[in-house]
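Before the break, one more example. Copy the sequence into your notebook; we will annotate it together after we see the structure.
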Amino acid sequence: QSRSSAASDVYKRQSSPRAATKTVSKGVFAVLFLLLLIQWVLMSFVSSFFPDSFVGMKISDTMQGVIFASFPVGAMLASPFVPRCMRAIGPKKTIMIGMVFMCTCPVLFGAVPFVVSTAASQYPFLVLGLLYGAGTALAELGAYAMLTQIGAEAGNVGAMISFAEVVTGVGCMIGPAIGGVLFEAFEQLEPNLRFFTPFAIAVSIPLAVTIIVVVVLPSRPAEDDDEGDGKPSKSICGDGRNPIRMVLVCTGVVVTACS
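Here is what the structure looks like once it is written out:
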């Protein structure tokens, strides 16, 4: 009986969250931080060359500001519903859906001048900005969910979130520089193709990362499935029906987007 009890204790220690965290590959952290970096690079890199492009000059300064704002607004509108999605299909599949938007929306954004190159192009730009923000919010919040879940198991959630914020800040910082370099590098191309090429090149990275996500990321349940004491945990969004929580989430996203 004592041997059975000892074996049971060993099993519990080996299957505990803290022990499980030790088996998490460093590649998992690298992929999660990389997709956060790419998301914000793609969200910010168009700002450096859009106003000076042949299609941007046909759009008013006010409308250009609205187009740039559509990216975070899309994320703001989608964010309150992402926790429910993660509870339904899990963080990994949520991230994969977000990666699809990350790969397709920039290419479509860059292809708009092939369809309409007048001031009316502001409307498809606006719609695609909203779609990119809303879709990539799935990948961003899915990555944060995995990071906080792993961090909670290791007892270092603060370090995980702090580093994730550093990564997103770096993405916002280097995005415009990358966009400007790519736009200048192809100045010999005709205007439509010159506008499209930076997007076509940039999305090659999230395409590669999408494949890595499928292979590397573990299929973990959503964080609020179980706190470890048999009781379901509460996320800040809860079940999406608490108006105070919803207001707090939306306000936080707006402040972050506008800061």
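Confidence is low (pLDDT under 50) at residues 1-23, 224-241, 245-249, 253-259. The radius of gyration is 21 Å. Try to locate both features in your own notes.
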